[in-house]
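Try this one yourself first.
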């Protein structure tokens, strides 16, 4: 189980190394006041392939969609250097989790007065396995997704997912699925969703308002080279009643489910095994 801890930890704030326990954000911070910002969570290390470039491309694209300047300092070369520094400073061993926060600088109310931005980079040990299975997943139709030009990005406004996390915990589930306002299957509260019927793998279209996950794009690219590419679909939640397998992906890895709303599902491990090998460092 992974937990963030800031005691005696180092972080990078606008290219400077700081103690993570120090206060660096003002009460006028727009991420705090309005959720005006983005974040990326990246898991990598000696046992995981490096997808930092894909994450960096997504946060850069997200900044452009928000009309926010992207800091020149957030380059792949600098992130690699800061990562190595924080691994040493924080005495991290094994795989690790990097979190990049990016927000618009203070000024204005709903309408910002400037487009410049600031960033924070954190790093801590990660103990989550790449693959975890035999889990339980359920459905919630109360909190819905709505498509917009920015719905694919990971914004600082996560209240919907927080409420779904509470519901998931109350129901004793490992994950929970949400839909869009037309009852199309969209995503889970923390991950992108995939399911299998026969030999075909499906995933919700970004038009459902789901996050355009980095691992999702990697899985799509992988299956594009296989006999049956993944189909991105707008499909009713009713279709999940007849699917045979369900799995999810996010930065932490792949999770598969043996139980959906009380219905027993098949394991997709055989299908995913070559993908998992590709995600692991040689």
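Now uncover the answer:
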């Amino acid at each position: 189980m992974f937990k963030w801890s800031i005691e005696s930890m180092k972080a990078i704030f606008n290219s400077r190394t700081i103690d993570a326990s120090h206060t660096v954000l003002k009460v006028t911070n727009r991420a705090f006041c309005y959720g005006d910002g983005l974040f990326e969570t990246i898991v990598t290390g000696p046992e995981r392939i490096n997808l930092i470039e894909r994450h960096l491309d997504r946060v850069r694209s997200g900044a452009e969609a928000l009309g926010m300047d992207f800091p020149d300092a957030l380059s792949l070369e600098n992130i690699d250097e800061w990562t190595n520094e924080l691994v040493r400073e924080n005495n991290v061993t094994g795989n690790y989790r990097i979190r990049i926060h990016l927000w618009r600088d203070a000024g204005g109310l709903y309408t910002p007065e400037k487009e410049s931005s600031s960033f924070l980079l954190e790093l801590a040990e990660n103990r989550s396995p790449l693959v975890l299975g035999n889990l339980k997943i359920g459905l919630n139709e109360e909190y819905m997704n709505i498509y917009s030009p920015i719905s694919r990005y990971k914004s600082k406004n996560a209240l919907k997912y927080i409420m779904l996390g509470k519901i998931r915990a109350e129901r004793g589930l490992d994950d929970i699925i949400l839909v869009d306002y037309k009852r199309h299957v969209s995503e889970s509260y923390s991950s992108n969703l995939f399911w299998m019927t026969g030999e075909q793998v499906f995933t919700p279209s970004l038009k459902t308002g789901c996050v355009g996950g980095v691992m999702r794009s990697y899985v799509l690219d992988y299956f594009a080279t296989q006999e049956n590419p993944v189909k991105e679909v707008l499909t009713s939640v009713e279709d999940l009643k007849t699917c045979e397998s369900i799995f999810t992906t996010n930065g932490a890895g792949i999770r598969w489910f043996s139980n959906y709303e009380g219905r027993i599902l098949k394991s997709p491990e055989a299908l995913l095994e070559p993908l998992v090998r590709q995600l692991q460092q040689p």
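Discussion: DSSP finds six helices and 14 strands in the chain. The two ends are 24 Å apart (CA to CA).
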